[in-house]
Amino acid sequence: MRDRISQLQGRLSFHGLAAAIFMHPRDVFYYAGTGQPCNLIVPAEGEPVLLARRVLEWAKADATVAIVIEGRGLPEVRDTLLARGCLTEGARLGIAADLLPATLYVKLTQYFPECKLENISPLVLDQRMQKEKSESLAVSVAATVYCRAHEVILRELHAGMTELDLAAKVSAALRQGEHEGIPRFRRWDASLQPEGLIMAGPNTWHISGHAMTVTGVGLSPSLPWGASRSSIRTGDLVVVDIGINVHGYHADIARTYVVGKADTKQKYMFEVVKEIQTAALNAIRPGVTGSEIFRVARETAIKTGVAQYFQGYGLMQGDYIGHGVGLEMDEPPTLDSKCQVIIKRDMTLAIEPKVIIPEWGAIDMEDTVHVTDTGNELLCPVPRELFEVT
Prior knowledge:
The protein is of the alpha+beta class. About 35% of the residues lie in helices and about 20% in strands. It is built from 11 helices and 17 strands. A 6-stranded mixed β-sheet has the order 4-3-2-1-5-6, sandwiched between helices. Strands 11-10-12-15-16 form a 5-stranded antiparallel β-sheet, with helices on both faces. β13 and β14 (about 360-365) form a beta hairpin.
């Protein structure tokens, strides 16, 4: 992780920032290796300092930075920055402004009146897009845990059970695979059940506000997506879309199942979705833009006659084909029609085409891939098939 710190310090210096203050757990974990409550101070030059708000000894045991001391609040943050000469008049301090509560931001302005606070989240997220070898391996491990969910679905799915019954069994299997149970999001208003999104029959085409995807309807207006108490029927399409978090790193995987034998339209629509995903996967390689990958997927949807239902329908039709994945479920880049991010080796991307047809149902297939020198590799070993569960 010292390389991560060095890269960050280079970015801070390039942009004229004196130091960065990290308070959000995912940022602290990325640069300092601990999930304990801490503040991390990274000066543009010199050693970073980890200030443990609680459990100093545990933070010391976890941390990958050399200096770990007790620091319960902003007074200690100020003292640390002052000791390193970072609080000169007009100095620019980097903060993750996309994550900080407004009250904490106000406190920071009061503690550092001589400084200018600037949002460095774009710098951090840009650095995180390319994964180190250990990170790519961690994402791959998370992707393989979907196998546990898949085995449970093939064994347990049957007509008459509820979506919630299936979700409970899937959740237990994932936890046994060391899924931490909390899919992390950068957005402050995002949340997801531990088993992700599981829905069947009519609930596959009712799109809630979680995202422009197959969402399900949930148990109540409090969390109106995911599994419900609706009973699953023979002939239903069942969509399972799971964000799996193993030891802090995520994979995003989705497969579609049928209770009983698939009919002709279900089989045809599945092959269409598979063709769209295959086209998008074939387009992923270092040097292309995210918008190019979306264009290929969109053109394939037009060619196959499903453009009206590609990534949703009507006002709930999404303008994307995938996204980055890593310490959080939805990381940059977002692979949409406007994405000018250049794809690079060692990015990990989730590619998620779907067809959602009102009054019929939905087919969803999502895979997490690792970008290689010449293309990409699928990380989940579960075949890209429409599974008939009899």
